[in-house]
Every structure is written in C-alpha cells, then in structure tokens.
Predict the 3D structure of the following.
Amino acid sequence: LPLFERLERRIVDGERNGLEADLDAAMAEKPPLGIINENLLAGMKVVGELFGSGQMQLPFVLQSAEVMKAAVAYLEPHMEKDDSGGKGKLLLATVKGDVHDIGKNLVDIIVSNNGYDVVNIGIKQPINAILEAAEEHKVDAIGMSGLLVKSTVIMKDNLEEMNSRGIAEKYPVLLGGAALTRSYVEHDLDELYQGDVRYAKDAFEGLHLMDRLMS
Ligand code: B1M
C-alpha cells in the first residue's frame, strides 16, 4: 500500500510494527497535524464504523486506540508550538463513566501548543473532582469530553450542579465528543446553564473558543 493508506490501515489493523518508520516518512511529506487529521483519524473513523456494525470486536478496537496513541505521542514533539503558556488556563476531563480519551488528549496537545496552560485530569472524572481541580489550579475555563450517549446526560447534570453551586458565571464550559451535537449544546444546554457553554466539533474549534474567551 502507498504510505498514507498504509498509515490509515495501521490504525484499523492495530499494527504497530514499523509505525515510527512510516511516520518519519510521512513527516517528510506533510506536517504532523496533517498526518493526524487526514490519515490517522480516517483510520479511527473506520474502526468506529466496523465496531458499530459488529464487524470488529472490542479488544481490536483497543489495539487500534493504542496504535493511535503511540502515533500521536511520536508526532507530538515534532509539532510547531508556542508552549510558553500564559494565555489562559483550561481544565480538561473526560466525564464520569467514560474512558475515551484520544480526542481529549488531542485537544490538550493543540491547546497547549498554542500558548495555553492545560490541566488534564484524565478519564472517568466525577463533577466533584473536576470542580476541585478547577479551584485548585484557578483555571479560566472547564473542558469536558465524552463519547458515549450517556455522557451527554452526565454533561447536562454537571452543568446543573454548577448552576446549583452558584459557580456557572465563574467557569465558561467547552464541551466536545462524538455523541454531542451542536444544537444540543448551543440550544438545550445553553438555555439551562447560567454561564457560558460552547460546543467544539474538534480540537481546533476548542482552541478558537479559548482564543475568543480569553481575548
Ligand atoms: Co468506544 N465507543 N466504547 N472505545 N469507541 C465509541 C464512542 C462508539 C461510538 C463506537 C460504536 O459503537 N460505533 C460507542 C458509543 C455508543 C454510544 O454511546 N451510543 C462506543 C462504545 C459502545 C464503547 C463501550 C461501551 C464498548 C463496550 O465496552 N462494550 C466501551 C465504553 C467504556 C466506557 O467508556 N465506560 C468502549 C471502549 C472503547 C475502547 C477502550 C476500546 C476505545 C477507547 C480507547 C481510549 O480512548 N483510550 C474505544 C474507541 C477507540 C472508540 C471509537 C472507535 C473511536 C473513538 C476515538 O478515539 N476517536 C468510537 C467510535 C466513534 O467515536 N465514532 C467508540 C478518535 C478521536 C480523536 O475522536 O474522541 O470524537 P473524538 O474527538 C474528536 C472530537 O469529538 C473532538 O475533538 C476530537 C477531534 O479533534 N473532541 C473535543 C473530543 N473531546 C473534546 C473536548 C473538547 C473539544 C473537542 O473540549 C473540551
């Protein structure tokens, strides 16, 4: 297979052997973010489709996810960056009950490579842990990620909890993840949350939202 198709195939097949050599060759052709967005994510999309239609079993999905993570970790040091920090601070968490973190970690990379400080507290984070970390690190905004349909409900509960604690004005919230829709966030949740809540389709929209919030 040609290089870029082979890279996509590696994600689908969970094939790690020779990954670095292919990534080196790919970086001679385009920047690391182009490889992630155009080739690696295309592979993950296929994985999602195969899994969703019952043609791929969970252990293989996990292997694909591991190759994806290894590839992103290999590319990350080669990305252009302004990692001076200081533009503002974003807390990132995957919500309670949800283990998916590839998207959240991409947001971390893109936002922190563009001059922000990111406090990434990981997966399966209940609202108490999110708010404690937000206080401790004095963040400017809270970003929640979740890929499961049930995570969209958890996000709603989290916003309600923030309303009832009287801290909605203090924390703008960014929400992202495959099960969300723009209209759910920008209509339903926006109506409910007493602060500012925005939807980010991808990591770049997350960055643009931070730019807007902090300007
Ligand atoms: Co899961 N899984 N999974 N899974 N998995 C999905 C989400 C699913 C849609 C697959 C399917 O059926 N087609 C489905 C959910 C169905 C639903 O809820 N209706 C599903 C399921 C069912 C499950 C389990 C329940 C399976 C089981 O156990 N029977 C289980 C759940 C466990 C749990 O969470 N409690 C499970 C487990 C797993 C693995 C562990 C094997 C693995 C995750 C590994 C990991 O993350 N460390 C996994 C994977 C890999 C997937 C798919 C195939 C790929 C997800 C991914 O990494 N995509 C996924 C299929 C899909 O999403 N269509 C699927 C690439 C990633 C870059 O995209 O995270 O969407 P994404 O991030 C995007 C944007 O959404 C956005 O930016 C990124 C791009 O720039 N974004 C943000 C995300 N967060 C953001 C936050 C922001 C801003 C933007 O600001 C805060």
About this structure: DSSP finds nine helices and five strands in the chain.
